[in-house]
Input
Amino acid sequence: MASWELEKLGLRDDVDLHVYEVPVEYQTVQRLIPALWKKHSPQLVVHVGVSGMATTVTLEKCGHNVGYKGLDNCRFCPGSQCCVEGGPECIDSIIDMDTVCKRVSALGLDVTVTISKDAGRYLCDFTYYTSLYQSRGRSAFVHVPPLGKPYTAEQLGRALQAIIEEMLDVLEHSEDKINCQHEH
Output
């Protein structure tokens, strides 16, 4: 999996990387994602999911609250068909995915990176929304194609490494701007 390849490659020295496998189960996601945020208080959480339909590495801009009808690996589906009852319909990541996409594409990696506004109303979207809600937008989601279709684990690992480093850079610069505005 691309995430394990990223764990081997690592990120820049000032970043602590924690990699977790999240089961394809609604109830586990609802329990695990808040617990991970509480345990680590991360600057950013980047979720990675495999999409059989993906042919590119896809940066998801937002997560959706409603429309979850598919059964998970435990044959469960939330009765409300939503992540957070009463939550907003859609939550955007605070990361500017267009900027990240342009920057990573300019690096000349042998991987195509694209943008999406629909993570699919299944466990990927459910996980993303849950994390965005928990973090007030300090999350990202990257969809990758299945291994070998067309990219190797190493190619995906290097792409994720570049994407996450750009996301952290974009996040740090946007926070610098916010801090400057507050000082005046």
